[in-house]
Structure formats: C-alpha cells, structure tokens
Amino acid sequence: MPEKLGIIGGGVMGEALLSRLIAAGIYEAGEVVVSDPAAERRQKLAASYGVNTTPDNQQALNATETVLLAVKPQIFAAVAATVAEVPGEKPLLVSIMAGVPLASLAAAFPGWPLVRAMPNTPATVGAGMTAIALGPQVTPDQQALAKQLFSSVGEVVEVAESLMDAVTGLSGSGPGYVAIMIEALADGGVAAGLPRAIALQLAIQTVKGTAELLQTENLHPAVLKDRVTSPGGTTIAGIACLESLGLRTALIEAVRTACQRAKELGA
Ligand SMILES: NC(=O)C1=CN([C@@H]2O[C@H](COP(=O)(O)OP(=O)(O)OC[C@H]3O[C@@H](n4cnc5c(N)ncnc54)[C@H](OP(=O)(O)O)[C@@H]3O)[C@@H](O)[C@H]2O)C=CC1
Ligand SMILES: O=C(O)[C@@H]1CCC=N1
Question: Closest by alpha carbon to 75, among 128, 11, 124?
C-alpha cells in the first residue's frame, strides 16, 4: 500500500520538514516514505521518526497525496531521468530545489500538479519562511494542502514564480547571512572585552528580540533605528561606522548575487 507522503532526499531540509509535519500531526509516521541513497541516513530517519525509508525514489513517487522533492538542484536531472510513469491520478509534487523552474519540473513530470517552494532552515524549529508558486494543474484543495504543509514549519506566502529566485536570495539564503552577522556581533563583543559565551548570548537575543519587536508592533525598521539612537550617543556612532564600511550595500549585493546564482542553478 503506497504511503501518502513521499520525500525524495532525506537531507537537512527533507528532515526539517519531515520532523515538523509529523509533530504537527499532518502525516503519521507510517504514512511517510523517505528515499535517500545513503543507508546510514535512512537508518537515522527511520529510528528518529518511525517513517518508512527506501533507496528507490520511485517508491516515494508512488505516494498518493504529496511528493516532496528535496534533493540538490545539481542532481535534479539525474533524478528526473529515472522517473517512471505513475499510473492514474498524480500526487501533488512540491519541489524545494533552488532555482529549478516549474517548466523544468513539468518537463520531468508531465501532467503532474506542481508547486515550487522555497522554505528556509528556521523551519526546523517552526519559525520558517516559505514562499510558494503554483503550477497550472494545482487544484484549490492542493493549493490549501501546500499552504498547510508549510504552515506547519512557519509562515507561508504565495508569489508569482518570477519572484522565486529573489525569494531564494533573501529568505532562502538569509539564515546564512544572519548567522554570520550574529557571529560577527559576538566577535565584536569579545573584542570589547566580553566572555565569548555571554557575547554570543547577547548577539542572538538582540537579533531575535529586534525581529520580534518589528513584527509584533508592525514597526518600520527605520522607526526602530531612530528609537535606539540617542543624540550624540553610542548607537549613532556605531551606525556611522556601519555606513562607512558599507553594510547596507553588502547585504543588498548578497541578496542580488544569491538570486543570480539561483537563476544559474536552474538554467
Ligand atoms: N539548506 C537550506 O537552507 C535550503 C535548501 N533548499 C533546497 O533544498 C534542497 C535540499 O537541500 P539540503 O537539504 O540542504 O541538501 P542535503 O544535501 O542536506 O539533502 C539532499 C539529500 O538528498 C540525497 N540525495 C542525493 N542524491 C539523491 C538521489 N539521487 N535521490 C534521492 N536523494 C538523493 C542526499 O544524499 P547524500 O548526502 O548521500 O548525497 C541528501 O541526503 C536543495 O535543492 C536546496 O536548494 C531550500 C531551502 C533552504
Ligand atoms: O544555498 C543554497 O543553495 C540553498 C538554497 C537556499 C538555501 N540554501
């Protein structure tokens, strides 16, 4: 009896989504099959979540409701080359691969209802940000299902497919940028004399608290910045330093460059 959810690629994101979908009760462990070539990885996923595992991607593609494609874009062509015809009604295929357009998915999975999604790693703790773009065959029920799947790992927004590479450059890759910012803030604290553990705690909670404040009070970032900067005080001195070193430009260029890289991966 085929499972309801098939996951192709049980890596970082496959596991993040799997763990939250089961914790949220959207799928029971016995309703899920994960395909991955690494036996050690399969054993780990089976032991941690009680899901079925297989080295055969076709078993995941035979899932009745949803197939999550969570392999690297660089191996998509190799995976697609092995796909056999699935008889009868096709499940919803949700790809989280960076860059790979719906048109390429449709060429590999003709006639399948397709969703292109871009989650991010905070999904692991239910604080993710996912954008989805729907293919033409997706029914309203499948659109609701796609939103439900990603709601279980955080916030969901629907966008035009033309924006998905920009999403990837911002929220998909963004946790990497923020992690570096936090590490650098902690380094600054250490340079100013703080013990490492305290510096890291201060940096993490400052970033988390600032994001929560902006979100909770629906504040524009510039308003919050103005609130923190006392005339002739410490914050404006620090900001002047950031501006002279080009932090804003660096972040803008990081998002644009990552967006461009997503386009290259999907070409
Ligand atoms: N990491 C992130 O922050 C995000 C990633 N993504 C996207 O998610 C996808 C997965 O990324 P991520 O989880 O980080 O990558 P991982 O490498 O952690 O996961 C991919 C998994 O697929 C397995 N795999 C390799 N070849 C095959 C195959 N032929 N059939 C089935 N499975 C295979 C890999 O096994 P092995 O390691 O043995 O090769 C690995 O376990 C990518 O397309 C990426 O663009 C999207 C949003 C955020
Ligand atoms: O770095 C990458 O290519 C993937 C996609 C978004 C986040 N990680």
Answer: 11
